[in-house]
Specification:
Elements lengths: L1 E3 L2 E3 L2 H42 L4 H17 L8 H20 L2 E4 L7 E4 L9 H5 L19
Antiparallel strand pairs: 1-2, 3-4
Family: Belongs to the complex I LYR family. MZM1 subfamily.
Protein name: Mitochondrial zinc maintenance protein 1, mitochondrial
GO molecular function, one term: protein folding chaperone
């Protein structure tokens, strides 16, 4: 035993074990809070992504937000800490990323048939097909490049 300010304590190992148990309990209690915060963050990110992707199109914006809300309400019954809840959070984050980076709005140009103006924003993923799908195949001598054809 040792004394600290007139209080008698058992050995230091006992104090360390109690502290370790307390921290473990605190961590178990905080885990659902952390996952709840992650779910709320994913929901907010999804709403921001719908706003970015569907800006200027209120009908689609409202429909996408209603779908996001319905999906999160459906997943509300999942227990915190379950693998299904973690999958739903990851799925929401992936959908938000796709909406933000890969969805473009196209508006028909008046007076020009089959012509659309795309709204590209700062979050749009810009790149060439070579980086995404690999470089194009090299041309060989057997290809019909430059051959003139006539209409029959």
């Amino acid at each position: 035993m040792f004394r600290t300010r007139n209080k008698a304590y058992p050995n230091r190992d006992w104090i360390k074990s109690v502290r370790k148990k307390f921290l473990s309990l605190l961590q178990r209690l905080m885990m659902p809070i952390a996952e709840q915060t992650m779910a709320l963050s994913a929901y907010r990110t999804l709403l921001r992504s719908t706003r970015i992707a569907f800006q200027g199109d209120p009908r689609t914006l409202i429909a996408s937000r209603q779908k996001a809300r319905a999906s999160f309400e459906e997943a509300r019954s999942l227990s915190l800490g379950s693998p299904e809840a973690a999958e739903k959070i990851a799925e929401a984050q992936e959908v938000a990323k796709i909406l933000r980076e890969n969805v473009l709005q196209g508006m028909a140009v008046e007076g020009k048939e089959n012509t659309y103006k795309l709204r590209i924003h700062e979050h749009t993923e810009l790149g060439d097909n070579d980086s995404r799908f690999g470089s194009p195949p090299e041309k060989t001598k057997n290809q019909l490049s430059g051959v003139k054809t006539s209409r029959i």
